[in-house]
Amino acid sequence: MKKLIRGLDKFRQTYVSSHQELLEQLSHGQKPRVLFIACSDSRVDPNLITDTDIGELFVIRNAGNIIPPYGAANGGEGGTIEYAIHALGIEQVVICGHSHCGAMKGLLKLNKLQKDMPLVYDWLRHAESTRRMVLETYPHYEGDELLEMLVAENVLIQIDNLKTYPIVRSRLHQGRLKIYAWIYNIETGNVLAYDARTHTYIPPEGQLLEEEDTVGSFSTSVNNESIIPVKKELEALLKVTPQTSKAAKQATRSLITLFDKARRLGMNNIELQNYHSLFSESVQLWAEKIYTRV
């Protein structure tokens, strides 16, 4: 407690004194841009890992970054989601899991929790579909590998749960809401983001591709010859095997640039999807190279 009280004094003398204008603005209301759903784990700090300031994130935190399906629980998650999207007009949601998650470890031994921690047991039952799916789909995984798989799949299942909320389904249908799946690695500080096209977790820069997606068909009055150079560059990039983290980052940036260029030149959606599939393995290898310490 002494540390906390000293921290309060430091906060007033340093942060408050240098952010008077921001705090004055926030006293009149909040306009966060992102709803960030994370685990309560003390090692995970949404503002710290995203380098965001007070007022930029609207945060929900609980054990296991779990969102019960609509109508399944009377907790505060549903009301907070509804308020964030309807009242605050938030159009971006991040569900962020993390490595070494205690809630996911508990999920693997769910029945043992019922006697000693019945409330934890009741809460983690909202993630029972995650546990069953992982154990039945990946029977050969165990130990840390099984836990990593559970963390990764749990984020995606919680997104499915989030989509059961009327306000979420409505905004998604209108194209006014985007949902992202992230995993934070405690020991490295790195974040990976789920890419629905490749069904893998990749560096979050890859999500810039999603931001630039267009809805509907592309114009048919396209000069096909103008796309030929882009195709050649994509085919050349497909053969690239980066040997360093820096080279892997450059390859990722190049791929994003080429996909953006292909869209602007009018490459049709089917062909774009084919290229996404071709690069799925490469993107995964590049991500491993970026986040592997030498």
What does this structure look like?
There is one protein chain. With 294 residues, this protein is of the alpha/beta class. The protein has two domains: 31-189, 3-Layer(aba) Sandwich (Beta-carbonic Anhydrase, Chain A), CATH 3.40.1050.10; 205-294, no CATH class. Helices cover 53% and strands 12% of the residues. It contains 15 helices and six strands. The chain has helices at residues 2-18, 20-26, 46-50, 76-87, 102-108, 110-116, 118-124, 128-137, 143-162, 166-173, 208-211, 228-238, 245-265, 269-278, 280-290, and strands at 34-39, 57-62, 92-98, 178-184, 191-195, 200-202. The protein has a six-stranded mixed sheet with strand order 2-1-3-4-5-6. Helix 3 (46-50) links the parallel strand 1 and strand 2 (57-62). Helix 6 runs antiparallel to helix 7 (118-124), helix 12 packs antiparallel against helix 13 (245-265) and helix 13 (245-265) packs antiparallel against helix 15 (280-290). The two termini are 40 Å apart. The model is unreliable at 212-222 (pLDDT under 50).
Name its key features.
294 residues, alpha/beta, Beta-carbonic Anhydrase, Chain A, 2 domains, 6-stranded mixed beta sheet, 15 helices, 6 strands, 12% strand
